[in-house]
Amino acid sequence: MVSFELEKYQHDIIEKYRDFTKRWIIPNRQKYDELSEFPWDIVKAAYDEKIINGSIPKEYGGNGFNIFDSSLASEELGYGCTGIGICIDASILALTPTFLAATEEQKKRIYGEMFEKKAVAAYALTEPNAGSDVAGIKSTALKKKDKYILNGHKRFITNAEVAEYITVFALADPERGARSLTAFIVKADTPGIEILPRLEKMGQRASVQNEIKFHDVEIPEENVLGREGMGFLIAMKTFDRTRTGVASAAVGNAQAAYDTALSWAKNRIQFGKPITANQAMAFLMADMSLEIEASRNIVWRAAWAYDTKQKNYSLLSAMSKLHATDMAMRVTTDAVQAMGGDGYSKEFPVEKMMRDAKLSQIYEGTNQIQRVVISKAILK
Ligand SMILES: Cc1cc2nc3c(=O)[nH]c(=O)nc-3n(C[C@H](O)[C@H](O)[C@H](O)COP(=O)(O)OP(=O)(O)OC[C@H]3O[C@@H](n4cnc5c(N)ncnc54)[C@H](O)[C@@H]3O)c2cc1C
Question: Looking at the structure, do residues 262 and 224 belong to the same domain, yes or no?
Fold first, then answer.
């Protein structure tokens, strides 16, 4: 018998993250959206209340969440604000390569420092000419005695200006191209790292992005993750693990937009009755609730597949990201429409949720790239 019943500790996770979201994220989301500033106060509070880095194993100070637990947590953060949620969650994208390939010594050192300093990390894969096409990376890290010398240019890097650590992907041997791609964990204060001004953007504005230039940055060889040439595999395996997080945050965002629109619409009287008394509006609400539920189910299924090591976890992870983020775009757009002028106004949060939803269709692999992943898996 398949059970969809959550365990008691999972209900506790939901309750804990929901409570944090109510106290810290919802009251501050509009402010950070307007300021477009990294919400350090909220991130520090997340450390104090053990709301951050949940999937780091307990022995290193984390909560030991599996992917399913993490997706429950990300949905709650996404319900409050996907921008602030990413400020709390993006370090896990940066640290996932360490889950996959770090030595015991590296884990102790990196996680220890992250918790001690209440720090955040950045994941530096994308370059001006290597977005969807990761194999097009041109940054190099050439070995010189016991060091690597890193040169290159990264773009759109979340947390770059606030990070303690940056996980960087670069070619150890440009002649071998992507087969030499290697992952490094780099201290952000290493000489030669230039962080460019913050990206101005449409949504998820609490989260910050910058270009990074590396000028002869010396990386000690003990900061290689895994081995030289494992970078491409690490990058792809990272996304297999993290895409359900993007998907669950999108489910949370859509749920929040739907809840707002539903309660508004039930109380909005036009032509002498609530607008939901019109079947067109009632069916719109029905479709929104159906779509959210369907996405939540595929996210849970994908997370379960990852945790139980099913063969198709990569396919399901891509499907969950594609389904949930496209759904969130539709549902948040419908929420704006259902609320008429109020939906479009900054008096209500749904216009922000609609702007925020767009980004989820783009990062961690655009939704076209998810279709590439899915079609390759089903056609092979
Ligand atoms: C706010 C923000 C935060 C980000 N954070 C990070 C981060 O922390 N770390 C990081 O490394 N990167 C990050 N990114 C980068 C992000 O992952 C890329 O923007 C994304 O992968 C797309 O790359 P691109 O922008 O270069 O678009 P391109 O790859 O140039 O794509 C342009 C369009 O072409 C489509 N396309 C490309 N190739 C194909 C194909 N084969 N088939 C069909 N369609 C295709 C794409 O889907 C897209 O619609 C972030 C981006 C943004 C905007």
Answer: no
Mean pLDDT by 10 residues, the chain (380 residues): 90 98 98 98 98 96 97 98 97 97 97 97 98 98 97 98 98 98 98 98 98 98 97 97 98 98 98 98 98 98 97 97 98 98 98 98 98 95
Domain residues for 78?
8-119
The structure's pTM equals: 0.98
Q: Is residue 2 in a domain?
A: no
236 and 374 belong to one structural domain: yes
**Separation of CA 126 and ligand 1 centre (Å):** 8
For the CA of 364, the closest atom of ligand 1 is: 17
Alpha helices of the chain — where are they, by DSSP H? 8-20, 29-35, 40-48, 67-80, 82-101, 104-117, 231-267, 279-307, 313-338, 340-344, 350-360, 367-379
Q: Do 339 and 301 fall into the same domain?
A: yes
Specify whether 137 is located in the same domain as 95: no
